[in-house]
Input
Amino acid sequence: MSRFFADRALGMKASDIRELLELTQRPEIISLAGGLPNTNAFPVKEIAEICQDILKNDSHKALQYSATEGIRPLRMALLDYMKDQLGVGGEVDNLIVTTGSQQALSLISMAILNPGDLILTTAPSYVGGLGAFRSYQAEIDSVAQDNEGLVIGSLEDKLKELKLKGIKPKMIYVVPTFQNPAGVTMPEKRREEMLELAIDYDVLILEDDPYSRLRFEGEEVKPVKYFDYEGRVIFLGTMSKLLSPGLRVAWMHSPRDLSRKFAIAKQSADLCSTTFSQYIAYEFLNRGYLMPHIEKIKTMYKRKRDIMLAAMDKYFPEGLTWTYPQGGMFSWVTMPEHMDSKLILMRAIKEDNVAFVIGSAFYHDGSGKNHMRLNFSHSSDELLEEGIKRLGTTLKKEMEE
Output
């Protein structure tokens, strides 16, 4: 049936992570793969209470279609949240509720990318972003990343090189805080320098921020959007890691002209995000439940991070290094260059019943084979340590051979 596909569909590639999640559904597999919140972190009692109240008092609105941009009470509550927690102001016309951040990435791609437009990302970068950009036939190039995120010198060199070739990137895409996959965070100085380069070279910045509220230690870092005095940064936020991914509530905060075009794109995508979920998210914010709930999540995830890092120190062979995340959900492992995480994954699943995500999934060119991403948020404390122990066994066998 390939003769019926559009050109852009022929270039679409299945997500290695989504495909892997199917494999890890086997009950004997300990999965350190998916970026899943812990199910014990879901505020079931509060959501049940809110749902009952909504159905009792607001069912005529919550079960109906809503505005494409989102219900106004939630948009206003999210603006207040951004101002209080992130120091970012704005008007209601700047904010659109989306069906998860992934829809936001797709809508942005739909509205601003032409086939062949160039996106700059870090290497590695979030696989969902890479997939969205590819779906709209964008070209992707990368700049270096270290343990403090995007390397400014690498970005500046890349922009100069492209300018000499007459190429102007459309956008720089970053996950600057507790990055997926590496767990690293850009210091504020780098964020300001990146913004100045974007202004000098007339490039948009897309800041994806699912994890910044999940900080366990260290000083808070202001988002790139905080420094955006010119209206050049598109900010993505989500409730998936803070409340529940099943609600599919996220948002875009962008300059008004862009926001209007994104809303038009959303009209053709789904008319509106799920109204009932929006009312749940609004009430959760309005009743003051969110911030105490985040504190509970942070306590849980810090414990799990500590368990995983201690187990890696204990069970992993020499010759490997990994990041020490101060928040979020992930650590990034670097192996000797000759090692291939895809081959190791097949062995880990077959022989030791443990799974992770291969490093090449996070590189636009398929490089990064000697890396792997490990998730510490989802598994129980006991399975987390056991999973690292099993993975250590696999890695030792590989290195011995």
User: Anything to note?
Assistant: Residues 290-315 form the longest helix (26 residues). Residues 2-43+292-400 form a domain with the Aspartate Aminotransferase, domain 1 fold (CATH 3.90.1150.10). The mean pLDDT is 95. Residues 146 and 162 are 22 Å apart (CA to CA).
